[in-house]
Amino acid sequence: MDYNKQQCGCGKDRKKLLCEIGKVDFALKDLNLYLDTHPYDQQALDAFGRYNSIKKQLTMEYTENFGPIVLDMLEDNCQEWKWALQDWPWERGYY
Amino acid sequence: MGFAGLALGKGVLLMWNYEKRLQFPVNITQTNPKIAQIIITQYGGPDGELSASMRYLAQRYTMPYNAVTGVLTDIGTEELAHFEMICAIVYQLTKNLTPEELKASGFDKYYVDHTLALWPQAAGGIPFNACEFQSKGDPVTDLYEDMAAEQKARTTYDNILRLVKDAEVAEPIKFLRQREIVHFQRFGESLRIVQDNLDCKNFYAFNPEFD
């Protein structure tokens, strides 16, 4: 059993998807810090909501195809604890 | 880091969620224990990420302004993800070293105490020390400390980038350097929020964390 597959059945690339999640989360983190000191900026509030739903969507896609990134989102009908079976992010080639 | 870390004010029960990914990719194919010995300072050194995280997360409990407590919580949380990146860099730079490589690089002195495990120390071998961060209990004092800390970390990254030319190592270091500048900006805004709440004729008339 390959616990760190790089391509899913439908041809999606694991690293590419993880990179997309990282980019969206970077925008969220930066907006998060900005909103802490500008809590009434409607444009930033809207952007946070928008990126938040994109991140949720991408994370769901990643989880279904490759395994969990966060424990409050698991793949449907999961039969094994991939969280602990798969590599951890500090290993080469995880990114 | 997880959604639970977002903008929590005082009196909220806190917990953290781990996200199984790095904030910025680290994939180093060439080991280099000499460089690892330098970069480890941003884990356990005086201006490292561990010290940054502990500094902000310690200061926030007595911070009387919720927006500033949010900044301390959220930057303190981001710093956890930063020392994970630093540890990943050191780990990959020292993976599978042979005894000969250890001796030749000077990493043998670290190895004898820690093998190839991660341990927070400065580049010169000085262990991580809580004296390296301040939690003074005065918001003006603490925010100046935090702004200085971000600049000291930025200088350290500049110093590292003069020594490291390999893009696989330099790119994540450049990302971390940029974050120091963003954090400095947010702490500057936090200081302004604090001062807006004080007596504009004398910011030092009283300490809002105590008086």
Describe the 3D structure.
The complex is a heterodimer of chains A (95) and B (211). Chain A is mainly α and 95 residues long. Chain A has one domain. In chain A, 56% of the residues lie in helices and 0% in strands. Chain A has 3 helices and no strands. The longest helix of chain A is centred in the middle third of the chain and has 25 residues, at 42-66. Chain B has 211 residues and is mainly α. Chain B has one domain (35-196): Ferritin, core subunit, four-helix bundle (Ferritin, Up-down Bundle). Chain B has 8 helices and no strands. Chain B has helices at 33-39, 41-44, 49-59, 66-93, 99-105, 108-114, 139-163, 167-196. In chain B, helix 4 runs antiparallel to helix 8 and helix 7 (139-163) runs antiparallel to helix 8. The two termini of chain B are 35 Å apart. The chains are: A mainly alpha (95), B mainly alpha (211). Chains A and B meet through helix 1 of A and helix 4 and helix 8 of B.
Instruction: Kindly name the structural category of chain B.
Output: mainly alpha
Note the overall shape of chain B.
Answer: elongated
Number of strands of chain B: 0
Count the helices of chain B. How many?
Answer: 8
> Given this structure, which CATH class of chain B is correct?
Mainly Alpha
Low-confidence stretches of chain A: none
Q: Helical stretch count of chain A?
A: 3
Mean pLDDT of chain B: 93
Domain tally of chain A: 1
Please tell me what the overall shape of chain A is: elongated
How many domains of chain B? The number is: 1
Oligomer: heterodimer
> What are the secondary-structure elements of chain A, in order, as H or E?
HHH
Question: Any idea what the CATH superfamily of chain B is called?
Answer: Ferritin, core subunit, four-helix bundle
**Main sheet characteristics of chain A:** none
**Number of E-type strands of chain A:** 0
Query: Roughly what fraction of the amino acids of chain A lie in strands?
Result: under 5%
Helix content estimate of chain B? 55-70%
Structural class of chain A: mainly alpha
* Separation of the first and last Cα atoms of chain A: 21 Å
* Mean pLDDT across all amino acids of chain A: 92
